[in-house]
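Q: Sequence in, structure out?
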Amino acid sequence: MGCFAFTAENRLRNTLFRNYSYIAIPVKHPSDVLNVSFELALDQIIELNVKSQLMTTKVWVMLIWHDYKLAWDPAEYDDITDIKIPSSYIWVPDILMYNNANGSFEMNQHTSPSIHYDGQVTWFPPAVYQSACRINVRYFPFDEQICSLKFGSWSYTEDHLDLIPKDDQVVERDFWPNEEWFIMNAPCERNAEKYPCCEGKYVDITCSFVLRRQPVYHVAYLLVPCGLISFNTILVFYLPPLMSEKMSLCTSVMLSMIWFMLLITQRIPSNANDPPLIVQYLIFSLTVVVTSLLYNVCIINMKNRHPVAHPMPRWVRSLFLMTLPPWVGLKKPERWQKSKKETTDVRTAPLQIKRITIPYPPEDPSPRDPNASFNLRRPSTDSQHSQIDTAPDALCNSIMSSPPLSRRKKMLLKASQGASSLSKPSSSDTNNNHGNNDITRRVLAEFVTEIKEDISYLHRRFEQDEIFAGLRQDWTVVAMVIDRIFLIVYIVGLIAGSTAIIMDAPLASEFFVNYILSPNITNESYWVK
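A: Exactly. Output:
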Protein backbone atom coordinates (compact mmCIF):
# COMPACT_ATOMS: atom_id res chain seq x y z
CA MET A 1 0.00 0.00 0.00
CA GLY A 2 2.87 2.35 0.86
CA CYS A 3 4.54 1.49 -2.44
CA PHE A 4 1.30 2.24 -4.32
CA ALA A 5 1.01 5.62 -2.55
CA PHE A 6 4.58 6.45 -3.49
CA THR A 7 3.87 5.53 -7.06
CA ALA A 8 0.78 7.77 -7.13
CA GLU A 9 2.73 10.77 -5.76
CA ASN A 10 5.58 10.12 -8.14
CA ARG A 11 3.14 9.95 -11.02
CA LEU A 12 1.55 13.20 -9.80
CA ARG A 13 4.90 14.96 -9.71
CA ASN A 14 5.76 13.81 -13.20
CA THR A 15 2.41 15.02 -14.46
CA LEU A 16 2.65 18.45 -12.79
CA PHE A 17 6.18 19.26 -13.93
CA ARG A 18 6.04 17.72 -17.41
CA ASN A 19 5.55 21.07 -19.15
CA TYR A 20 6.04 23.36 -16.15
CA SER A 21 8.30 26.43 -16.29
CA TYR A 22 9.35 27.93 -12.98
CA ILE A 23 10.44 31.20 -14.58
CA ALA A 24 7.01 32.26 -15.85
CA ILE A 25 4.45 33.95 -13.62
CA PRO A 26 1.45 31.56 -13.26
CA VAL A 27 -1.33 33.56 -14.94
CA LYS A 28 -3.59 32.38 -17.78
CA HIS A 29 -3.66 35.72 -19.59
CA PRO A 30 -0.96 38.41 -19.75
CA SER A 31 -3.43 41.00 -18.46
CA ASP A 32 -4.27 38.97 -15.38
CA VAL A 33 -2.94 40.02 -11.98
CA LEU A 34 -1.58 37.44 -9.58
CA ASN A 35 -2.67 38.12 -6.01
CA VAL A 36 -0.19 37.10 -3.34
CA SER A 37 -1.34 37.01 0.26
CA PHE A 38 1.30 38.24 2.71
CA GLU A 39 1.62 37.65 6.44
CA LEU A 40 4.56 38.38 8.72
CA ALA A 41 5.00 36.36 11.91
CA LEU A 42 7.53 37.67 14.42
CA ASP A 43 9.52 35.17 16.42
CA GLN A 44 12.05 37.44 18.15
CA ILE A 45 13.61 40.88 18.13
CA ILE A 46 17.18 39.76 18.51
CA GLU A 47 18.74 43.19 18.89
CA LEU A 48 18.18 46.85 18.27
CA ASN A 49 21.63 48.36 17.93
CA VAL A 50 21.09 52.02 18.69
CA LYS A 51 24.62 53.10 17.84
CA SER A 52 24.68 51.27 14.47
CA GLN A 53 20.97 51.98 13.87
CA LEU A 54 20.22 48.37 12.94
CA MET A 55 17.41 46.07 14.03
CA THR A 56 17.90 42.31 13.86
CA THR A 57 14.72 40.22 13.78
CA LYS A 58 13.82 36.58 13.36
CA VAL A 59 10.58 36.20 11.38
CA TRP A 60 8.50 33.87 9.23
CA VAL A 61 7.10 35.24 6.01
CA MET A 62 3.90 33.51 4.87
CA LEU A 63 3.15 33.82 1.15
CA ILE A 64 0.03 32.32 -0.41
CA TRP A 65 -0.78 32.45 -4.13
CA HIS A 66 -2.62 30.38 -6.72
CA ASP A 67 -0.75 28.50 -9.46
CA TYR A 68 -3.24 27.05 -11.93
CA LYS A 69 -0.54 24.80 -13.42
CA LEU A 70 -0.20 22.93 -10.13
CA ALA A 71 -3.83 21.81 -9.74
CA TRP A 72 -4.96 18.15 -9.94
CA ASP A 73 -7.84 15.85 -9.17
CA PRO A 74 -7.18 13.93 -5.93
CA ALA A 75 -9.34 11.04 -7.12
CA GLU A 76 -6.87 10.31 -9.92
CA TYR A 77 -3.92 10.18 -7.53
CA ASP A 78 -5.18 8.09 -4.64
CA ASP A 79 -6.80 11.07 -2.86
CA ILE A 80 -3.53 12.97 -2.48
CA THR A 81 -4.60 16.52 -1.53
CA ASP A 82 -1.22 18.22 -1.01
CA ILE A 83 2.43 17.67 -1.66
CA LYS A 84 5.71 19.34 -0.75
CA ILE A 85 7.86 20.64 -3.58
CA PRO A 86 11.27 22.35 -3.20
CA SER A 87 11.04 26.06 -3.88
CA SER A 88 13.63 25.81 -6.63
CA TYR A 89 11.27 23.60 -8.72
CA ILE A 90 8.34 26.01 -8.89
CA TRP A 91 7.72 29.67 -9.53
CA VAL A 92 7.89 31.75 -6.33
CA PRO A 93 7.33 35.50 -6.06
CA ASP A 94 10.52 37.53 -5.80
CA ILE A 95 9.55 39.15 -2.52
CA LEU A 96 12.51 40.97 -1.00
CA MET A 97 13.00 43.20 1.98
CA TYR A 98 13.85 46.63 0.60
CA ASN A 99 15.55 48.05 3.70
CA ASN A 100 17.82 45.11 4.37
CA ALA A 101 21.19 46.16 5.77
CA ASN A 102 23.27 42.96 5.68
CA GLY A 103 23.53 42.50 1.91
CA SER A 104 21.18 39.50 1.65
CA PHE A 105 17.77 40.48 0.29
CA GLU A 106 16.37 37.04 -0.58
CA MET A 107 14.36 34.69 1.57
CA ASN A 108 15.51 31.27 2.62
CA GLN A 109 15.24 29.07 -0.49
CA HIS A 110 15.91 25.81 1.34
CA THR A 111 12.32 25.32 2.48
CA SER A 112 9.63 23.51 0.51
CA PRO A 113 6.28 25.16 -0.23
CA SER A 114 3.10 23.21 0.33
CA ILE A 115 0.93 22.73 -2.79
CA HIS A 116 -2.78 22.04 -2.43
CA TYR A 117 -4.73 20.11 -5.08
CA ASP A 118 -6.64 23.28 -6.12
CA GLY A 119 -3.37 25.00 -7.07
CA GLN A 120 -2.93 27.04 -3.87
CA VAL A 121 0.74 27.36 -2.92
CA THR A 122 1.65 28.16 0.68
CA TRP A 123 5.22 29.11 1.41
CA PHE A 124 6.34 29.81 4.95
CA PRO A 125 10.12 30.45 4.90
CA PRO A 126 11.95 31.57 8.08
CA ALA A 127 14.41 34.42 7.89
CA VAL A 128 16.72 36.52 10.02
CA TYR A 129 16.70 40.11 8.80
CA GLN A 130 18.94 42.99 9.69
CA SER A 131 17.12 46.14 8.72
CA ALA A 132 18.16 49.78 8.78
CA CYS A 133 16.30 51.78 11.40
CA ARG A 134 16.49 55.52 11.97
CA ILE A 135 17.04 56.04 15.70
CA ASN A 136 15.95 59.13 17.60
CA VAL A 137 17.70 59.27 20.97
CA ARG A 138 16.19 62.58 22.05
CA TYR A 139 14.40 61.04 25.04
CA PHE A 140 16.89 58.29 25.87
CA PRO A 141 16.32 56.21 27.99
CA PHE A 142 12.58 57.03 28.00
CA ASP A 143 12.28 56.69 24.25
CA GLU A 144 10.18 54.97 21.63
CA GLN A 145 11.60 53.87 18.29
CA ILE A 146 9.76 53.02 15.09
CA CYS A 147 11.52 50.45 12.93
CA SER A 148 9.97 48.98 9.80
CA LEU A 149 10.37 46.02 7.49
CA LYS A 150 9.42 46.81 3.91
CA PHE A 151 8.59 43.84 1.66
CA GLY A 152 7.75 43.94 -2.02
CA SER A 153 8.31 42.41 -5.44
CA TRP A 154 11.47 43.52 -7.14
CA SER A 155 10.41 42.67 -10.71
CA TYR A 156 6.63 42.81 -11.04
CA THR A 157 4.57 45.96 -11.02
CA GLU A 158 1.07 46.39 -9.68
CA ASP A 159 -0.32 45.35 -13.08
CA HIS A 160 1.19 41.87 -12.77
CA LEU A 161 1.55 41.09 -9.07
CA ASP A 162 -0.36 42.48 -6.13
CA LEU A 163 0.50 41.99 -2.48
CA ILE A 164 -2.46 41.73 -0.13
CA PRO A 165 -1.88 41.73 3.65
CA LYS A 166 -3.56 38.77 5.28
CA ASP A 167 -3.66 40.63 8.59
CA ASP A 168 -3.26 44.30 9.48
CA GLN A 169 -0.92 43.40 12.34
CA VAL A 170 2.29 41.44 12.68
CA VAL A 171 1.50 38.04 14.12
CA GLU A 172 3.42 37.19 17.29
CA ARG A 173 3.64 33.45 16.86
CA ASP A 174 5.78 31.72 19.52
CA PHE A 175 7.17 35.16 20.28
CA TRP A 176 10.25 35.42 22.47
CA PRO A 177 10.14 38.81 24.27
CA ASN A 178 13.14 41.11 24.20
CA GLU A 179 14.56 42.16 27.56
CA GLU A 180 15.11 45.78 26.57
CA TRP A 181 12.36 46.56 24.06
CA PHE A 182 8.64 46.09 24.34
CA ILE A 183 6.44 46.03 21.22
CA MET A 184 3.68 48.58 21.64
CA ASN A 185 2.22 48.13 18.16
CA ALA A 186 3.13 46.43 14.89
CA PRO A 187 0.78 47.43 12.04
CA CYS A 188 1.15 46.25 8.45
CA GLU A 189 0.18 48.58 5.62
CA ARG A 190 -0.03 48.12 1.86
CA ASN A 191 1.51 50.81 -0.33
CA ALA A 192 1.80 51.31 -4.07
CA GLU A 193 4.70 53.53 -5.03
CA LYS A 194 6.17 54.69 -8.31
CA TYR A 195 9.93 54.92 -8.46
CA PRO A 196 11.84 57.27 -10.78
CA CYS A 197 13.79 54.40 -12.29
CA CYS A 198 10.90 52.32 -13.56
CA GLU A 199 7.49 52.39 -15.20
CA GLY A 200 4.40 51.55 -13.21
CA LYS A 201 3.79 51.26 -9.51
CA TYR A 202 5.32 48.66 -7.26
CA VAL A 203 3.35 47.27 -4.36
CA ASP A 204 4.95 46.83 -0.96
CA ILE A 205 3.79 45.91 2.51
CA THR A 206 5.47 47.82 5.31
CA CYS A 207 5.33 46.38 8.81
CA SER A 208 6.22 48.99 11.42
CA PHE A 209 7.33 48.09 14.92
CA VAL A 210 6.66 50.66 17.62
CA LEU A 211 9.24 49.75 20.26
CA ARG A 212 9.33 51.21 23.75
CA ARG A 213 12.51 50.89 25.73
CA GLN A 214 12.37 49.34 29.17
CA PRO A 215 14.38 51.99 31.08
CA VAL A 216 14.91 50.15 34.38
CA TYR A 217 18.46 49.13 33.50
CA HIS A 218 19.50 52.60 32.35
CA VAL A 219 17.80 54.30 35.29
CA ALA A 220 19.58 52.01 37.74
CA TYR A 221 23.02 52.12 36.11
CA LEU A 222 23.10 55.59 34.56
CA LEU A 223 20.55 58.03 35.92
CA VAL A 224 20.73 57.13 39.61
CA PRO A 225 24.57 57.15 39.86
CA CYS A 226 24.71 60.33 37.81
CA GLY A 227 22.13 61.95 40.07
CA LEU A 228 23.97 60.90 43.22
CA ILE A 229 27.24 62.27 41.87
CA SER A 230 25.50 65.51 40.91
CA PHE A 231 24.08 65.91 44.39
CA ASN A 232 27.58 65.46 45.81
CA THR A 233 28.13 68.98 44.55
CA ILE A 234 25.91 70.15 47.39
CA LEU A 235 28.41 68.73 49.88
CA VAL A 236 31.01 71.10 48.47
CA PHE A 237 29.01 74.06 49.75
CA TYR A 238 28.37 72.40 53.09
CA LEU A 239 32.07 72.00 53.86
CA PRO A 240 33.62 74.84 55.91
CA PRO A 241 35.43 77.49 53.86
CA LEU A 242 38.65 76.72 55.75
CA MET A 243 38.90 73.22 54.26
CA SER A 244 40.99 72.81 51.13
CA GLU A 245 39.22 69.50 50.41
CA LYS A 246 36.45 71.51 48.73
CA MET A 247 38.58 71.81 45.60
CA SER A 248 39.43 68.09 45.62
CA LEU A 249 35.76 67.14 45.90
CA CYS A 250 34.80 69.49 43.06
CA THR A 251 37.50 68.05 40.82
CA SER A 252 36.49 64.46 41.60
CA VAL A 253 32.83 65.15 40.82
CA MET A 254 33.78 66.89 37.58
CA LEU A 255 35.90 63.94 36.42
CA SER A 256 33.06 61.55 37.27
CA MET A 257 30.67 63.57 35.12
CA ILE A 258 33.09 63.52 32.20
CA TRP A 259 33.41 59.74 32.54
CA PHE A 260 29.62 59.38 32.43
CA MET A 261 29.47 61.49 29.27
CA LEU A 262 32.05 59.24 27.61
CA LEU A 263 29.98 56.22 28.65
CA ILE A 264 26.84 57.69 27.08
CA THR A 265 28.60 58.47 23.79
CA GLN A 266 29.32 54.76 23.39
CA ARG A 267 25.58 54.00 23.44
CA ILE A 268 24.14 56.62 21.10
CA PRO A 269 24.66 57.24 17.36
CA SER A 270 27.54 59.52 16.51
CA ASN A 271 25.39 61.43 14.03
CA ALA A 272 22.70 62.34 16.55
CA ASN A 273 21.81 65.95 15.76
CA ASP A 274 19.54 66.32 18.76
CA PRO A 275 21.45 65.51 21.97
CA PRO A 276 19.64 63.15 24.34
CA LEU A 277 18.09 64.44 27.52
CA ILE A 278 20.53 62.43 29.59
CA VAL A 279 23.42 64.22 27.87
CA GLN A 280 21.71 67.55 28.54
CA TYR A 281 21.36 66.49 32.15
CA LEU A 282 25.05 65.58 32.34
CA ILE A 283 26.02 68.90 30.74
CA PHE A 284 23.80 70.71 33.24
CA SER A 285 25.37 68.82 36.14
CA LEU A 286 28.86 69.40 34.76
CA THR A 287 28.11 73.12 34.47
CA VAL A 288 26.99 73.15 38.10
CA VAL A 289 30.21 71.42 39.17
CA VAL A 290 32.45 73.74 37.13
CA THR A 291 30.73 76.85 38.47
CA SER A 292 31.05 75.49 42.00
CA LEU A 293 34.76 74.92 41.33
CA LEU A 294 35.22 78.52 40.19
CA TYR A 295 33.13 79.74 43.09
CA ASN A 296 35.23 77.84 45.63
CA VAL A 297 38.37 79.44 44.21
CA CYS A 298 36.79 82.82 44.96
CA ILE A 299 35.71 81.68 48.43
CA ILE A 300 39.21 80.46 49.34
CA ASN A 301 40.63 83.74 48.05
CA MET A 302 38.13 85.69 50.15
CA LYS A 303 38.79 83.61 53.24
CA ASN A 304 42.57 84.20 53.02
CA ARG A 305 42.38 87.96 52.47
CA HIS A 306 44.62 90.07 54.71
CA PRO A 307 42.64 92.70 56.60
CA VAL A 308 45.23 95.40 55.89
CA ALA A 309 45.62 94.72 52.18
CA HIS A 310 41.87 94.14 51.67
CA PRO A 311 39.83 96.24 54.10
CA MET A 312 36.20 95.14 54.18
CA PRO A 313 33.79 97.62 52.57
CA ARG A 314 31.08 98.98 54.81
CA TRP A 315 28.24 97.58 52.66
CA VAL A 316 29.78 94.10 52.79
CA ARG A 317 30.00 94.31 56.58
CA SER A 318 26.43 95.53 56.86
CA LEU A 319 24.97 92.97 54.44
CA PHE A 320 26.93 89.81 55.18
CA LEU A 321 27.69 90.28 58.88
CA MET A 322 24.60 92.04 60.19
CA THR A 323 21.67 91.28 57.86
CA LEU A 324 22.01 87.94 56.06
CA PRO A 325 23.36 85.47 58.69
CA PRO A 326 20.02 84.95 60.48
CA TRP A 327 18.27 84.40 57.13
CA VAL A 328 20.58 81.56 56.11
CA GLY A 329 20.70 79.77 59.45
CA LEU A 330 23.92 81.31 60.80
CA LYS A 331 24.67 83.44 63.86
CA LYS A 332 26.13 86.91 63.78
CA PRO A 333 29.75 87.16 64.94
CA GLU A 334 29.91 87.84 68.68
CA ARG A 335 31.91 90.99 68.13
CA TRP A 336 29.05 92.40 66.03
CA GLN A 337 26.22 91.43 68.38
CA LYS A 338 26.89 94.36 70.74
CA SER A 339 25.34 97.75 70.33
CA LYS A 340 27.13 100.47 68.45
CA LYS A 341 28.10 102.20 71.70
CA GLU A 342 29.83 99.09 72.94
CA THR A 343 31.43 98.26 69.63
CA THR A 344 34.66 99.96 68.67
CA ASP A 345 35.50 100.61 65.08
CA VAL A 346 38.29 98.19 64.33
CA ARG A 347 39.89 100.52 61.83
CA THR A 348 40.36 103.43 64.29
CA ALA A 349 40.43 101.67 67.67
CA PRO A 350 43.22 103.02 69.93
CA LEU A 351 45.41 100.58 71.75
CA GLN A 352 45.49 101.17 75.52
CA ILE A 353 47.73 99.84 78.26
CA LYS A 354 46.77 99.80 81.88
CA ARG A 355 48.93 101.74 84.29
CA ILE A 356 51.74 99.82 85.87
CA THR A 357 53.63 100.47 89.09
CA ILE A 358 57.40 100.28 89.03
CA PRO A 359 59.21 100.30 92.45
CA TYR A 360 62.38 102.35 92.65
CA PRO A 361 65.44 101.48 94.76
CA PRO A 362 65.88 103.19 98.12
CA GLU A 363 67.89 106.39 98.33
CA ASP A 364 69.68 105.37 101.50
CA PRO A 365 70.11 101.67 101.88
CA SER A 366 71.28 100.26 105.17
CA PRO A 367 75.08 99.96 105.22
CA ARG A 368 74.85 96.95 107.46
CA ASP A 369 73.46 94.80 104.68
CA PRO A 370 75.93 94.09 101.89
CA ASN A 371 73.04 93.51 99.51
CA ALA A 372 71.23 96.61 100.67
CA SER A 373 71.13 98.03 97.14
CA PHE A 374 68.65 95.27 96.24
CA ASN A 375 66.49 95.54 99.37
CA LEU A 376 64.05 97.99 97.84
CA ARG A 377 61.82 99.68 100.35
CA ARG A 378 58.38 101.07 99.52
CA PRO A 379 58.77 104.49 97.87
CA SER A 380 57.03 107.62 98.99
CA THR A 381 53.57 108.56 97.83
CA ASP A 382 54.87 111.09 95.29
CA SER A 383 57.19 108.63 93.63
CA GLN A 384 55.17 105.45 94.24
CA HIS A 385 53.86 104.95 90.71
CA SER A 386 55.31 105.55 87.30
CA GLN A 387 52.26 105.87 85.03
CA ILE A 388 52.24 105.46 81.29
CA ASP A 389 49.28 106.03 79.06
CA THR A 390 49.74 105.05 75.48
CA ALA A 391 47.49 105.77 72.49
CA PRO A 392 48.94 104.27 69.33
CA ASP A 393 47.84 105.13 65.87
CA ALA A 394 45.21 103.30 63.88
CA LEU A 395 45.57 99.60 63.22
CA CYS A 396 46.88 99.89 59.69
CA ASN A 397 49.76 102.17 60.82
CA SER A 398 50.53 100.51 64.15
CA ILE A 399 52.59 97.50 63.15
CA MET A 400 55.39 97.79 65.70
CA SER A 401 58.86 96.46 65.45
CA SER A 402 60.50 94.59 68.28
CA PRO A 403 62.84 96.59 70.61
CA PRO A 404 66.47 96.17 69.72
CA LEU A 405 67.87 93.17 71.47
CA SER A 406 71.40 94.56 71.74
CA ARG A 407 70.23 97.52 73.80
CA ARG A 408 68.49 95.29 76.30
CA LYS A 409 71.63 93.17 76.60
CA LYS A 410 73.67 96.29 77.35
CA MET A 411 71.25 97.34 80.08
CA LEU A 412 71.36 93.91 81.67
CA LEU A 413 75.16 93.97 81.48
CA LYS A 414 75.28 97.36 83.22
CA ALA A 415 72.92 96.16 85.92
CA SER A 416 75.02 93.08 86.58
CA GLN A 417 78.21 95.12 86.66
CA GLY A 418 76.62 97.54 89.15
CA ALA A 419 75.49 94.71 91.35
CA SER A 420 78.97 93.17 91.25
CA SER A 421 80.62 96.42 92.21
CA LEU A 422 78.24 96.86 95.11
CA SER A 423 78.77 93.38 96.43
CA LYS A 424 82.58 93.59 96.51
CA PRO A 425 84.08 94.89 99.82
CA SER A 426 86.28 98.00 99.57
CA SER A 427 88.28 100.26 101.89
CA SER A 428 86.47 103.26 100.57
CA ASP A 429 82.91 101.90 101.03
CA THR A 430 81.92 104.78 103.21
CA ASN A 431 83.15 107.45 100.81
CA ASN A 432 81.81 105.80 97.64
CA ASN A 433 78.50 104.49 99.00
CA HIS A 434 76.56 107.48 97.82
CA GLY A 435 78.14 107.33 94.35
CA ASN A 436 77.33 103.65 93.97
CA ASN A 437 73.73 104.32 94.86
CA ASP A 438 73.51 106.93 92.12
CA ILE A 439 74.95 104.52 89.54
CA THR A 440 72.61 101.75 90.61
CA ARG A 441 69.63 104.08 90.48
CA ARG A 442 70.48 105.24 86.97
CA VAL A 443 71.07 101.68 85.72
CA LEU A 444 67.84 100.40 87.21
CA ALA A 445 65.91 103.41 85.92
CA GLU A 446 67.10 102.72 82.39
CA PHE A 447 66.36 99.02 82.85
CA VAL A 448 62.85 99.74 84.11
CA THR A 449 62.29 102.05 81.14
CA GLU A 450 63.25 99.21 78.82
CA ILE A 451 60.87 96.87 80.65
CA LYS A 452 58.05 99.39 80.29
CA GLU A 453 58.76 99.71 76.57
CA ASP A 454 58.74 95.92 76.18
CA ILE A 455 55.48 95.60 78.08
CA SER A 456 53.96 98.39 76.02
CA TYR A 457 55.09 96.70 72.81
CA LEU A 458 53.74 93.29 73.86
CA HIS A 459 50.41 94.80 74.84
CA ARG A 460 50.10 96.67 71.57
CA ARG A 461 51.07 93.56 69.66
CA PHE A 462 48.50 91.49 71.56
CA GLU A 463 45.77 94.03 70.82
CA GLN A 464 46.90 94.19 67.22
CA ASP A 465 46.78 90.41 66.78
CA GLU A 466 43.37 90.31 68.41
CA ILE A 467 42.00 92.88 65.97
CA PHE A 468 43.64 91.11 63.03
CA ALA A 469 42.03 87.86 64.15
CA GLY A 470 38.67 89.60 64.34
CA LEU A 471 39.01 91.00 60.83
CA ARG A 472 40.06 87.63 59.47
CA GLN A 473 37.10 86.09 61.24
CA ASP A 474 34.86 88.66 59.54
CA TRP A 475 36.09 87.55 56.10
CA THR A 476 35.59 83.92 57.14
CA VAL A 477 32.02 84.67 58.20
CA VAL A 478 31.39 86.42 54.87
CA ALA A 479 32.66 83.31 53.08
CA MET A 480 30.41 81.10 55.22
CA VAL A 481 27.36 83.26 54.47
CA ILE A 482 28.04 83.15 50.73
CA ASP A 483 28.64 79.40 51.02
CA ARG A 484 25.26 78.93 52.68
CA ILE A 485 23.51 81.13 50.08
CA PHE A 486 24.97 79.11 47.23
CA LEU A 487 24.11 75.89 49.05
CA ILE A 488 20.43 76.89 49.03
CA VAL A 489 20.59 78.15 45.45
CA TYR A 490 22.30 74.99 44.21
CA ILE A 491 19.89 72.66 46.00
CA VAL A 492 16.88 74.42 44.48
CA GLY A 493 18.53 74.77 41.07
CA LEU A 494 19.77 71.19 40.92
CA ILE A 495 16.41 69.70 41.90
CA ALA A 496 14.44 72.00 39.60
CA GLY A 497 16.83 71.61 36.66
CA SER A 498 17.08 67.84 36.98
CA THR A 499 13.31 67.45 37.25
CA ALA A 500 12.67 69.76 34.30
CA ILE A 501 15.15 67.98 32.04
CA ILE A 502 14.12 64.42 32.90
CA MET A 503 10.39 65.12 32.89
CA ASP A 504 10.69 66.70 29.45
CA ALA A 505 10.53 63.14 28.12
CA PRO A 506 6.84 62.25 27.58
CA LEU A 507 7.30 58.75 29.01
CA ALA A 508 9.45 59.71 32.02
CA SER A 509 6.62 60.88 34.26
CA GLU A 510 4.52 57.89 33.26
CA PHE A 511 7.38 55.53 34.08
CA PHE A 512 8.14 57.01 37.50
CA VAL A 513 4.48 57.19 38.50
CA ASN A 514 3.89 53.56 37.56
CA TYR A 515 7.17 52.46 39.14
CA ILE A 516 6.31 54.18 42.42
CA LEU A 517 2.75 52.86 42.44
CA SER A 518 3.79 49.37 41.40
CA PRO A 519 7.31 48.09 42.15
CA ASN A 520 6.80 45.54 39.38
CA ILE A 521 7.78 47.59 36.35
CA THR A 522 6.27 45.04 34.01
CA ASN A 523 2.88 46.50 34.94
CA GLU A 524 0.83 46.69 31.77
CA SER A 525 -0.26 50.25 32.56
CA TYR A 526 3.14 51.47 31.38
CA TRP A 527 3.53 49.21 28.38
CA VAL A 528 0.06 49.55 26.89
CA LYS A 529 -1.10 52.76 25.29
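Residues 429-502 form the longest helix (74 residues).
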